[in-house]
Amino acid sequence: MRIAVVGSGYVGLVAGACFAELGHDVTLVDNDAAKIAALHKGEVPIHERFLPELLQRHRGSRLSFSGNLRQAALESAVIFIAVGTPPTEEGEADLSYVESVAREVAGAVNGGYKIVVEKSTVPVYTSTWVRKVMLLNGAQESSFDVASNPEFLREGTAVTDFLYPDRIVVGADNERCAAVLREIYRPMTDGSYYRGKNAVPGPDGVRVPPRLIVTSTKSAELIKHASNAFLAMKISFINAVASVCENVGADVSQVCEGIGTDSRIGPRFLSPGVGYGGSCFPKDLMAFRAVARECGYDFSLLDEVIRINEDMRQRFLRKVRNALWTLKGKRLAVLGLSFKGGTDDVRESPALCLVELLLKEGSQIVAYDPAATERAREVLGDRVTFAANPYEAAGGADALLVLTDWEEFAALDLDRLREQLRYPIVIDGRNLYNPEQMAAHGIHYYSIGRPPAAPKSQPANAGTAPGSH
Description:
Low-confidence stretches: none
Number of domains: 3
Structural class: alpha/beta
Number of helices: 19
CATH architecture of the largest domain: 3-Layer(aba) Sandwich
Number of strands: 14
Radius of gyration: 24 Å
CATH superfamily of the largest domain: NAD(P)-binding Rossmann-like Domain
CATH topology of the largest domain: Rossmann fold
């Protein structure tokens, strides 16, 4: 099937490459000439596992790049809209880019039946407005349908999330439209893709083939916002539990195991830390709250989810103060700048937020991130020193702060790390280490929702603050 994907950002690029991987002929469209030129040259603009391989495999055959939206729409049976929907000052989704695409596509749909699909995360009723805009701009009512096909991609695992999903949600208001979208995903739903010798390897324990769920367009639009809001709520809930654990001396890792093994709850997203970030959760929570408000419902639960998330940064900052006493003039090593491990995305990153707070306190920051250094440099400039590896960052530091859950950080040589640090203090915002193991390596260790740990010769809360000497 011939498919146009409008927008070469995170969602559009991954979707375009994966549709090509499924055997479709895909044109990826963007009005940014520099992006299109870079893609033609084989450059990969984001850090995402398996994406370089897919782009190399299909570029010039099943996958092409263009700046001509009208031509791509004329040549395609299905047009996926994957443009940005950034938040406005009021927290609502800015749909101006979606509307612009709808206007332009309207003139290209009268040559035969086409489907325009929302792939961007959009509020309920967007499909209705897309249809109205297209009709106002000359599209014939019988020549097109508007559908919703929300993405559930996690940065760092987006390719495997697309090809090995928990479910595929298709929002279509008639069977003709639904049948076309079923056909697009048939290589996945009939299992044929997974039997191919060149299939991207799936994660352990994944169920194939995935289930395809057909709903109305309005339901599909709500499913995406509700899913992200629920996951953010789960993160904020366990962070609130971690705060209670700290106050009573309990261990949140044990609490997580106890509640996560309940099949009604499950262990995923029960990982206490410095809070969620990225381009999805913060934006989608505000947009979902705005939608509820417009519909006459006060979704105050979402306000609390957001408040807890913001409070976690302040709680972590207090934890750093408790370990070091004063922060002015302290040299702090920071591991992690992206909002999560496996990606170079620093949008709404809790790590960057904490670095900014520490800079305001007068701390000197030496930071390392495996992938996000250049993107972080665009935000932080020369206010931060960037190291080439974790041990260089730790050199002469008064303490080490772990702010992103990169796998390589959990496998550091702890003896070498301790030797690099001026004082053997690690404050872990992602709970990557075992407290007893850290203490055994001579490190004073502070984490989220667990009692502090210290070498046997010294208590965790006594005599460790460099400023007290």
